[in-house]
Design brief:
Layout lengths: L13 H25 L11 H26 L5 H25 L9 H12 L7 H13 L12 H4 L16 H19 L3 H7 L7 H8 L1 H21 L6 H17 L4 H17 L3 H4 L6 H17 L5
Length: 323
């Protein structure tokens, strides 16, 4: 206890910094792939690919689990309010910067409640759980994770409510981390950290000193917020000129769309000739009406659904279904 009575600064667990550094590296890999996919520099849409979507969810879950662990380590004995509000202000400012930046670059799909917005809100919501029994915190966290599997309502499709969760059709945005289910991962992290701190494992982890090869991960873990804010502008600064150097009508975008369209059409039981003609019709209308920005939205928005339905109606009338 300090002379002033303020809570003592908690010890730092190097393993947490290493794990956060691993999550940062994984995030950079994902965002690099996202940028390459968005600019049609790789022949895959990672926003719909099952493997990449799983990778994204693992990264997000890992980050939020570590938020809960870090809150427990920093404020488990007593909330250090000055430190808490300083960190909260930095994260909230970063969230505002992300919203402004993405609104300028991607006005139709800007980030209004992404990972930084979620961390700021979740950090506030999690404070009471630092005093609850770990089993109760874990049970409530499991509830947050499970409830969205059984309850959805169209009212939550509205962006003004989407940050809560429970949507049937997600709104058009490049990043959305709603309370349900993701706050559950923070609570699981709190419960896990409290259980570890109450066990002999805590002393072992506190005494662990990483090898020199892991030092870069520790540095990245400790500067995770700064890295998060600057890595995308750096990636875009490298990738955008490469993408912009191609002709405006680069065939990779058309070829990728037609290939995916034909594969889906054939999976629905249609013949190859019919699917080729149908998808050729569809891509002609997309190019003619300059609908790429709508069609390539990372989530299925009402605007995208309407555009797809209109194209399907026109091309179905033009290309009759094969007998």
């Amino acid at each position: 206890m300090s002379v002033t009575g303020a809570p003592a600064k908690p010890p730092r667990f190097a393993i947490v910094d290493v794990l956060r550094g691993v999550a940062i590296v994984a995030m950079i890999v994902y965002h690099c792939a996202w940028d390459l996919s968005y600019f049609q520099l790789i022949p895959i849409d990672i926003t719909v690919d099952d493997g990449w979507r799983l990778f994204q969810h693992l990264i997000l879950g890992g980050f939020l689990l570590l938020v809960g662990v870090s809150l427990t380590l920093a404020h488990g004995n007593a909330i250090r309010w000055r430190s808490f509000w300083r960190r909260f202000t930095m994260i909230a400012a970063g969230a505002a910067a992300v919203t402004i930046g993405t609104y300028i670059l991607f006005p139709q799909t800007f980030v209004f409640f992404g990972i930084l917005h979620a961390i700021a809100l979740f950090s506030l919501l999690a404070l009471p759980f630092l005093r609850l029994p770990p089993w109760l915190t874990a049970a409530i966290g499991a509830g947050f994770l499970i409830v969205p599997l059984f309850f959805q309502h169209p009212a939550f499709n509205d962006p003004r409510l989407a940050w809560i969760g429970f949507w049937e059709v997600p709104p058009a945005t490049n990043d959305l981390v709603p309370i349900f289910p993701w706050f559950g991962m923070v609570l699981v992290g709190i419960a896990l950290a409290r259980l570890v701190l109450a066990s002999p494992l805590a002393a072992t982890l506190a005494a662990w000193r990483p090898a020199a090869v892991l030092r870069p991960l520790i540095v990245m873990g400790r500067w995770s917020l700064v890295i998060y804010l600057v890595h995308q502008p750096i990636l875009l600064g490298i990738i955008y000129p490469i993408a912009n150097a191609r002709p405006a009508d680069a065939p990779t975008r058309v070829d990728s769309f037609v290939s995916s369209c034909v594969a889906t059409c054939e999976q629905n039981g249609n013949g190859k000739d019919h699917c080729t003609a149908y998808c050729g019709c569809a891509v002609e209308r997309i190019v003619r009406d300059d609908l790429w920005a709508v069609i390539e939205q990372p989530t299925s928005s009402p605007e995208q659904n309407a555009a797809v339905a209109d194209i399907a109606k026109q091309c179905t009338a033009t290309i009759p279904t094969a007998p």
